Amino acid sequence: MLDMLKSVFSNLSRKPVTRMYPYEERKPFDINRGHLENNIDECIFCGMCQRVCPSNCIKVDRKTSVWEYNPFECVLCGVCVEKCPKKCLKLDVHYRSCTDKKYNIHLEKHDDSEKAGA
Amino acid sequence: MSDKSTIPFGPQHPVLPEPIHLKLVVEDEKVVEAYPAFGFVHRGLETLAQKKDFNQMVYVVERVCGICSCMHGQDYCEAIEELMGVQVPVRAEYLRTIWAELHRIHSHLLWLGLFADAFGFENLFMQTWKIREKIMDILEATSGNRVIISVNIVGGVRKDINSEQAKWILKELDDVEEQLKDINDVVMNNYTVKERTVGIGVLTKEEAYELGATGPMAKGSGVDLDLRTTGYAAYKYLDFEPIVEKDGDSYARNLVRMREIFQSIDLIRQALSKMPEGDINVPVKGNPPAGEVISRLEQSRGEVVYYIKSNGTKFLDRLRIRTPTFANIPALLKILPGSQLQDVPVLILTIDPCISCTER
Ligand code: SF4
Ligand code: SF4
């Protein structure tokens, strides 16, 4: 019955092991796979990322220079980042914030704009 | 008039977040028959092998199970490597072993928490999950993700552990071991735990063997069956003995899992100290040649079997996964009849069920 006593006492004198999220956040690890970003200026629309992606969430159109990505289907494996010949893809350590609407990330070469749309 | 009645257990049940349905025929409080029903979370992952190429499939099979995900990837990669005649670098073998053992620790700790929760020992549940968090941090810091770590690829691994990280891991493991020793006394000597486990759900050695039980279920009944002794990955370079207990009751299965956690810590220490420098993967060219292969390895719950049939293209013809929980269901159905109704959740948890695995 008294087996837990030791941890009871140590827990009394220790600060909580849990955090008051979202007021207190843990710093992400350096190699955390948070979200995918594409530096579209560097991209050559080769379509490599589309071919290797296990969840088929990237669509590359070479003719119109469009790179389209569905962040809700992406499993953040990072294969596209490794295979990209121009190294323009990058996994950022921070997660995307939650949302009540699904959207695709649509990047085009000529105007560099990031539009959110279905 | 018959005094038997039928009580459904699940598919939604407070002790188990996963959907398994058991039809329990009870006489007063005693279970006399048990009938299982599955298929609530079937996802058809095996069929995906015909739609995704063999490299993409690594990330699919990792999602068969959330708890031993890395070992699914490892087994699949080892199967494809055997088919293609690829020899992975020694360092990759070690790294695979380290991540697999980390997964074993966190799986057993998760199980211990759920198990304690099943008989209302909430405090133990919180303590074990607190310890488990350290292991999750190690996984996240070394791979970039907490659960689905996606480190295995055909030909080796994708991430490396540098010497600084290795030192930090060893320090964290010392801490984990220290805290586990306190918990160990509770799990093994506590009156409440013993009352609910000793002599309950006994599976004899012969029964365990005949019913094809695997993992801690078999080891707790004295069947000395641990695939790590066959020396896949880096286990051939490490020194260990399979952990076996004789009694075959719920307590013995606990004991096996508890001791396996300590064994895994020891294996990681050995692996980190013996790991040679070198490449972590080799380039793999072409498609797997036509042929069949079977690859097996020891997961936290027991033996997992991958059968792969390839036709020479980048898509596989057939992928078949036999998961350990599936193999342990007959043993569960053997120990349920004769038990008291209040012991049913505890007995189900002693097989460490992973229903998502089972239904793939
Ligand atoms: S692989 Fe890289 S360069 Fe090629 S299309 Fe994708 S992001 Fe662009
Ligand atoms: S991280 Fe993985 S799933 Fe996400 S886009 Fe890249 S390859 Fe696809």
UniProtKB/TrEMBL annotation, chain B:
Name of the protein in question: Ni,Fe-hydrogenase III large subunit
Keywords: Oxidoreductase
Domain NADH-quinone oxidoreductase subunit D span(s) in chain numbering: 121-282, 287-360
Keyword Nuclease: no
PANTHER family registered for this protein in UniProt: FORMATE HYDROGENLYASE SUBUNIT 5-RELATED, HYDROGENASE-4 COMPONENT G
UniProt xrefs under InterPro entries: ComplexI_49kDa-like (IPR052197), NADH_Q_OxRdtase_suD (IPR001135), Ni-dep_hyd_lsu (IPR001501), Ni-dep_hyd_lsu_Ni_BS (IPR018194), NiFe-Hase_large (IPR029014)
